[in-house]
Design brief:
By secondary structure, the protein is α/β, with parallel strands linked by helices. The chain has a domain of 58 residues. It is 30% helix and 27% strand. It has a 5-stranded parallel beta sheet with strand order 6-7-8-3-9, sandwiched between helices. A hairpin with a 2-residue loop joins strand 4 and strand 5. Helix 3 packs across helix 4. The longest helix is centred in the C-terminal third of the chain and has 16 residues. It starts with a strand and ends with a strand. The model has no long low-confidence stretch (mean pLDDT 94).
Length: 196
C-alpha cells in the first residue's frame, strides 16, 4: 500500500530526518514516536504531500504516490495539530463542510464521537476536548485508505479515547491503515513503531 524509501526532510538548514524507510499494508498501523522536534509532524506533512521530500521516494502500490496529487489527496485523511474549525459555525455545520467535500453523513459521524447532542452549538463554545472530537469526527464521514494523525488524543478524556479506539479498529478491519504521531499510548493493538 504505502511505502517510504530512504526519505529525508530538511527544515531550514537542518536535516530533520534522513534514510527513513517503512511500509504500511492494508489494515496496518504505525506509531511515529520520538522526542519533540524529531520530525514526526514533518513526516506526516510529507506523507500528506504538504511538504516535499528532500530525498527518497513515497510509493503507493509501487508507484510514485505524488505523481497524481489529486489522487493522493483522495486516498488519505490528515489530522494535524490544529482542529481546523470555524468558531461561528455549529458542530454540524463544521462537519457538513467536509461531508460536501468527501461525502458521508454528518449525524452518524457526530454520534461516533459522542457529539450528537452538541450538533447545534457553535464551535466557539465547545471545550478543547470537544473540539478535538469534532475534528476526529471527520474520519467517520467517508472512507479513505490512509489516516495520518498527529497527536490525535490531545485533550481527550478516557471515554473519548475509547471512542477513537472503536473508530480506529473499524477503519483497520475494513482494510484502512493508520500512521499516528504520538507521545501517549494509542488504542492501536499490534501497531508497528517507527522511532525518529
Amino acid at each position: 500500500m504505502l511505502e517510504g524509501r530512504d526519505l529525508a526532510c530538511w527544515r531550514g538548514e537542518r536535516a530533520v530526518f534522513a534514510g527513513l524507510s517503512f511500509t504500511l499494508a492494508p489494515g496496518g498501523a504505525l506509531l511515529l514516536v520520538g522526542p519533540n522536534g524529531a520530525g514526526k509532524s514533518s513526516l506526516l506533512r510529507l506523507l500528506a504531500g504538504l511538504i516535499p521530500a528532500a530525498e527518497g521516494q513515497l510509493l503507493w502500490d509501487g508507484q510514485d504516490a505524488l505523481a497524481d496529487r489529486v489522487a493522493h489527496a483522495s486516498r488519505l485523511r490528515y489530522l494535524g495539530h490544529g482542529d481546523a474549525l470555524k468558531p461561528a459555525l455549529t458542530a454540524a455545520e463544521n462537519l457538513g463542510f467536509y461531508a460536501r467535500l468527501w461525502g458521508g453523513d454528518v449525524a452518524p459521524a457526530l454520534a461516533a464521537l459522542g457529539l450528537a447532542e452538541l450538533a447545534d452549538l457553535p464551535a466557539r463554545v465547545l471545550s478543547s476536548g470537544q473540539k478535538r472530537r469534532l475534528a476526529l469526527a471527520r474520519l467517520a464521514l467517508a472512507p479513505a485508505p490512509i489516516w495520518l494523525l498527529d497527536e490525535p488524543t490531545v485533550g481527550l478524556d478516557a471515554a473519548s479515547v475509547a471512542r477513537l479506539g472503536l473508530l480506529l479498529a473499524a477503519h483497520r478491519a475494513a482494510g484502512g491503515a493508520v500512521l499516528a504521531a504520538t507521545h501517549l499510548p494509542l488504542p492501536l493493538p499490534d501497531a508497528g513503531e517507527l522511532r525518529l
